[in-house]
Amino acid sequence: MLATAAADTNNRSISVTPDEQGGAAGSTAAAKAAPWEGPQRRLNHFVRTVAFLERAGNGLGTLAFTWATVVILGGFSTNLGPDFWYATAIVFLEAFRVFSRESRSDDELLFKTTGGIRLKRVKLIGNVPYYLNVGIVMVCLYGTIEFLLIHYKYLPHPPHRMPYHFILLAVLLALGSMVQLPTIVKHMKGHPLLQSSPLVAVLAFGGVLLWTNAPARFAALVVAPLFVGCLQYSLIAACLHRTNILLHLPLPIWLQKLGTLIFPVWIAISVPIAFGPMGILILLGTLLVGNIQIPMALARIGLSSMRLSSKESHKIPNSDNNNEHLAPALKIFYSMVLGQGTLYILACICESVLFHFLRGSLAWALSDVKEGFESVDLYYEHAYDKCMADGVLAQEDLNLVRFAVDSLSSNSRTKKLAAVQILHSLLLPREASNKLHVAEITTSTKAVATLISMLSWTRPQDQDIRFFAAKIVTELAGDLLIVGIPGTIQIVSSLLDSDAKNSLAMQSISAQRGDTNEQSKDNWKLTSHGSAAGVGIKGVEAGYQTLTILQDYSAHAAANNSKWCYKICKFLRSVKDMVSVPKEVKEPWKDEDSFPIQGMLILEKLTHNPDNCAEINRAAGLIRKIIGFMSYTTDTTNVTEERKKLYVTSALKLITKLVSAKGEIGLALRQKISEQPFLLSNLAEILEDSRNGIDQQLTMVILSKLALDDETSHEIGRFQLFIPKLMQAFLGRYESINKYYNSSLQMVAGEALSNLSMENSANCLSILDETRYDLIDNLKDMIQNDEYAYFAATLLQNLCAHSRDKLQHLGSSECFSSALQVVLLKMMVAEGKQLESLIGLVSQIYTVIPEHFAHKLESHENARGLVEKLVGTLNCNKKPSHEYPRMRRVIVEMAISIVDSCPHYATIFREQGMMEALTMVESTPSKVEKYMVFFGDIGVVPERGLPLRDLVAKAKGLTESSTSTPGAQLVILHD
């Protein structure tokens, strides 16, 4: 019906159509690809390039390993001289990679170059304390081991110590990578014991210096800044906070911020002074922890280049067994090692330079991955591992959708969160050209079941995943068949049970994603869990957000109108933006993102399928929950008025979908909904509230569908509010501007009134009791408008059928006579349902004003055309349609009315073939004509008039027995 179509506005379900490839869903009309596909394609090409460089390097390394062990060490071991040790070192270096092949990639630990110089793991400027802690640990370990070796005389004299220093540093870097030192430091926040590890390292270093009788100046220069650096963010801040020193001795904010930066600078200066050139290497080594592949690759290049460029290489003095093949063999070996190292370095440089740009391009194209691009990082790691495992030449189709779908089954919460973030971004309905091909999601029962199960995750730490899963399922619901996923409706129903606690949890998480600068009035207050270095700035994740320091510094500078302060802050911010990828602040949850609203949206879209509707009908207590939201006065704690309004609108849309369901399940749903005790009172409250036209329109649609049931129609009529409000919407005007209501509201109100008046004399009398309107004249005028003709004619037809006495008593003969003329003219151009209602109205007008009816027909200027229209329509409806099942009945009834009032019309009917048409109707009975109204293919309002066979017999009798009169002949001649 038209009202149903009007009620379906704002439907945001994804339009999915099968494409030519056999099932991929998407917008076939879209001429260009989605915005994210181009950046994804470029990132995939980049991944394959990096993987190719690494696999080529691995291949050269394996070949060099085999060449060294079999050809060089196996064939020339006694003739190598110094090359023996170089080859042995390279072989052991390569063997470490070869024997690590159980990992997902050949070089997972020491040789993996994914991420290049992996500063993306820890942001350089924003996480200075991270590097401070790693640097403190590395300096202390190096100093402790060095001084112990010197004390016990395991190191040679100073002129010969440099190679041993290099070996010691390389070993420390390798051990740091193997024990995953960066991960340990990064997770210090939740582990008090780990937080104390830098302090333990400093104390151990100091103890060793005392034990070895090191110079006091050396201890003061090195240990002091290390010790203060450890305490800077933890012990000192705790003391200041607990003893309220700052309350008695207020410090300028610039001095407080200066203290957070001065000690790292002190350490960076004192360590090179104490350890010489090795100090610089130690500090640089801090950046290489977790990226040991860089020095390893450089070692390959250095060793091989040194031997290839040496003039004395491959010469074996005083040897009679000099083999002419030794030198070429060594050159081939060192060339392969040089190529391997060069490819590794090239892969690292290429990735470090281009990766951040490509990652940012894809993340911004998705426009919703705002968590520091972690989701894109995980996709990159996945694509890299795929290329390394399957080969760069393998035709592996790498795409975000498949990665996200596969990640849903992961045991890692991080991967699950990344998966739902990506899917949510890709499913955002932005424009026609950017609709996602959702087949890979909807055809994966496991993925859909996982997404649905996420809707039941109620732990506070899982609210992010639950939120994104709800948004994804909302977008996919229009394509889902949930019969094969048991418990789906119960899980979705749980979203409607989200109480104030869930709302507060969402608001809390949303606030944490907002501006961190607003979360703390006391910038030196300790966080509840501490941090990697015990940082005491509340609201700053991991305590390392230098950005917040800059924001506070900027605010202080602006407050004091200090130009130079502001310029310094602006410069530091620009530096920070250049060297790190900003972590975007995620928008807070909005009212329409609440779980009850998402749950009702999911249910609304699931109603596209009758099987889904059957599952909804079987769900215990679900209808009651939905109707509970249909009230502006519902007592919901901690819920804003705006959200209450959204609850009402969402519930109305869902109930509208349910009452509009077709077939037998539609009958069951309407019956179940009409039995709810608070339904009509809630609808009356909404209809009385004139603030929201959409809610009123949806309410009228619900009333019109429920009114098709006789008992419910009587219950609606007994509410004295409904009919006056419907009359006002259908016939009334806005008092301020004297204009009718909008057309969509008028149509649904007209449908509701026509359904309420159908076979219901009490409701018809209630309609006639509304004396504020010139009802007949208004309906006559609306009949002339194609938009409202069907509802106006149906309503007037029902009033004539069930309130004939009152209409005659009101003395509306002239109004009906004028309306009859309009209806007869409208009939000549009408078709379908509109024609059915107009023909039925003519017959009912005859019962109200028979004398005026006969006069109008006698003076009708196109009698033959009128009869021809009726007979032609009857012949065209040999098979009754469920869209207008009464067409043949109302034509027969009108023919009876015409011939009964004007017998001379019988001649015209016979000439136009009415007798043959009536015989055809008599010989083709149909069960469709036993109903007045169909909902889909199910009859919902039975026909209560005389059987059609009896009407046909009466029409045939009148047409055969009536004879023409002189007056009639005159009329015919005038035609």
From TrEMBL:
Domain of life from the UniProt record: Eukaryota
Membrane-crossing residue ranges in chain numbering: 58-78, 130-150, 162-181, 193-212, 218-241, 253-275, 332-358
Residue ranges with Polar residues bias: 7-18
Matching InterPro entries: ARM-like, ARM-type_fold
The keyword Ribosomal protein is annotated on this UniProt entry: no
Keyword tags: Membrane, Transmembrane, Transmembrane helix
Region of interest: Disordered: 1-36
PANTHER family per record: ARM REPEAT SUPERFAMILY PROTEIN, OS01G0618300 PROTEIN
Protein name, per record: Uncharacterized protein
